[in-house]
Design goal:
The protein has helices at 13-29, 49-73, 88-95, 119-127, 142-145, 166-179, 205-229, 244-252, 275-283, and strands at 5-8, 33-38, 79-84, 101-105, 132-135, 154-159, 182-188, 235-240, 257-263, 288-293. It has 295 residues and is an alpha/beta fold. It has 2 domains: 1-137, Rossmann fold, CATH 3.40.50.12370; 142-295, 3-Layer(aba) Sandwich (Rossmann fold). A 10-stranded mixed β-sheet has the order 3-2-1-4-5-10-9-6-7-8, with helices on both faces. The radius of gyration is 21 Å and the shape is elongated. The two termini are 27 Å apart.
Amino acid sequence: MRLPVLVGIDGSERAAAAADRAAREAALRGVALRLLHASPQLPGAVVPGPALHRLRDIGAQWLQRTVADLADRHPDLRVESVQSDDAPAEALVAAAGDAALLVVGMRGTGGFEGLAVGSVALRAAAAAPCPVVLVPHRPGTVAEQGPAAHGTGRIVLGFDVHRPVGEVADFAFAAADAHAARLHVVQAWAFPAQSVSSRSLVVTEEDRADWEDQEVLRLADVLRPWQEKYPGVTVGSDLMLLRPAEALLNASGGADLVVVGRRAEPRAAEGRLGPVAHAVLHHARCPVAVVPHGG
């Protein structure tokens, strides 16, 4: 049985944008779409019983409204809806164990103006066992529609040629192939430590060109297996003499998706995001995919 695409629903505009993107992903993959709303049970002393039932009813209405809306635009898509009594982040992380992909809005109904990423989205990105796509709400942007909406999309992959991560590259190449999008591989690099004098940070243009040529050749060699596996994907690469997060943020302008990795830590119950993924989530100008990996 093929796993569904999962999306969190909380009645917000960002959740609606996430549901729309998730529906397109599910249709493209030929799998079901599963909507999840979490209505945590609070102590009766805090919230009266009738109010708890009312909160659950509101959640059910949000789910029904989303199902109806998606049915109009994706009539052939099978849509399921479930409610959970767990806290939203915990419910999403648990349900992601039976999903191929989790899609969430960058922020939900909570938070405050200027907050880029909400606590639920951060927790899901840091702990979900499957890839997570986080969708910002910027009405009218091409990036929000997703690459499949126009067929000329660009997906950015953060890549380290010296420590390539198969799961992350697999996700990015497969996404580019499915969406008929160009894949933009970004390799941030630095001069070899031994090349920089302890008395000076001056590096000749000749040395810089030599090192850059070496990186270009190395990158082409490392990417070759994926290019052979996905011959239909047009791949472009950039070597940027920048910190990884800065390089990816520069590349995110006009992109449809930025793909980064997250080291899965089985012994760390809470999960965590590395500094690059954290910075990209907070500052990228497009949706971001966080792919867990064991490397």
